[in-house]
Amino acid sequence: MKTYQKLLNIKKAKGCGFLVLLDPDRNSPKALADFARGCEKVGVDGFLFGSSIMVANHFESSLLAVKKAVKKPVIIFPGSSSMVSSHADAILFLSMISGRNPNLLIGEHVKAAPAIKMIGLEVIPTAYMLIESGALTSVSYISDTFPIPRHKSDIACAHALAGQYLGMKLVYLEAGSGAEKPVPLEMVQKVSRYVDIPVIVGGGIKNTTYAKKLATAGASFVVVGNFLELTTKKQTLDNVKGFARAVHSK
Description:
The chain is built from ten helices and eight strands. It is α/β, with parallel strands linked by helices.
């Protein structure tokens, strides 16, 4: 079964799925694998794997370690065309449609496409939209783009629908790693109702209460990453378990 179909099945069965973002630039391969294994045991539905910028050189080894440790889908969340690997189940083929940087609309994709085809990696075309979060985030700085204003749900809806019409299979509303403010509930609700494809929401989600509200608002998947890195191991897995329970609306 294709990974994308697995995601659709998770959404259908649970109402909203919970994904954990693993950053290979912040931890060793063993630490990431151990953490992923623990997350899987407490209810995580899958993993996104990637970083806005890679300083460390263990992307491949970390991805392989995580893939060997878990049975849930491991999906590359690429920060550049170099983040391609046969060890993953799929890759989010992110087109940053909220900005007008041609490199992130098509440039990086052209570089990555031949390698993806060569290794037979499943591609999930994703309309990636950066949403204003109250402070400059890594993704905004690295991408050199302006986010969609957080109070302009109509602009977000128009971009998301354009992404759907371009053939994207997912919409990803991104506040950014460690964002001060998460994506507004009103925007999530309006975008989810406006398009016919699943909507992923991530960035700045610091508590289970808001995560549950995102699921209720219509998010198909909620992603948490940076917040979990700020807590101890036991606290982290307790938090993961709490997020999973809050997000699963069925």
